[in-house]
């Protein structure tokens, strides 16, 4: 389109104010295709989440575990009162039923060695791991006195050992516990009335009359999982010590307890972390009667997730779309007023659509490469297109080159903000303040009455 100097006119539609209103309305109109782009990013992100969930389901889901727990049955008597209708006599009876008491270890040491890797499917990736967990510790003599349960009502020879966990299908080897010099094999237990999301492993009967608590009640067992996303442990020992190491370089420590800062190390090759939790640090006792409570509230562990995936970065970039469009239009508007060159609203529309194309290019290239490379390629393509288009509009070199440098600086500024986490708001605020100051400086002599 051929450009020419703006003729002098008293028409209100030719005033700077009217032109700015039209450009502002166009900016708002371009938010519609920008929202479609954001919807596309959200759709692709949802697709990724679905693929990751499928990968995790096949490989192994998150790991949550606590145990081993002594489960000891005892006989409970309840008195019932009935009235004989014929004789009108009151009859008292004692009805026996079997209930269970649960006792946690005195000392519990857990060592977890976790090897992580990335699994890829098409353009998507998921973080998975294989963890070998070694448990050892000991029990003290179970105390039924707090419930006034007589020793003759305790079924010591029918005790079992219980583990509450998730992800049973991804356990890689048989699980055996050694207690009192004897090995006991765990078997899965079906429980149709479970009160939480855990599953259970339980041994055959353990005759506790043959175990001298103190010196002969030490136990140890290993369990190996394939899992994904998370490992969480409940500190059921009176003293619980956990040591964890992994080759994952960006762990997120989660749950009710954090590792010891003095021993925690995160390097380029992985991390090591140690916890020590005492019974006074959590609000549950070392035994439970009748019902084993849901202790997930007191769990702690590590999340193995990719810190910022490609769709999160694309989504963050698209949030700055309105800023990019608005500032680019403002630059063209200021150039139009300083150079007295007329820029048609259609030309503004083409520039705006080119700016929106940046985000579709960004997400499509990211899926086949990485975010940084995609951002650079998309930025070069859009900046080059708008700069070349500016040469045909402005008919000189000075202003198009200024536009090219301005867009390059703007996209670089946004990329820096996206990469920052803790300082994103600070850097963004300072940058926008400087941009506002520059706009105020260059627009100070514009006669808005024309």
UniProtKB/TrEMBL annotation:
Keywords: Membrane, Transmembrane, Transmembrane helix
Transmembrane segments: 20-37, 320-339, 345-362, 374-393, 399-418, 423-442
Protein's name according to its UniProt entry: Cell envelope integrity protein CreD
NCBIfam families the record matches: PRK11715.1-1
Pfam families: CreD
InterPro entries found in the cross-reference section: Uncharacterised_IM_CreD
Example of a GO cellular component annotation carried by this entry: plasma membrane
Source organism superkingdom: Bacteria
Species whose genome carries this gene: Flavobacterium shii
Keyword Transmembrane helix: yes
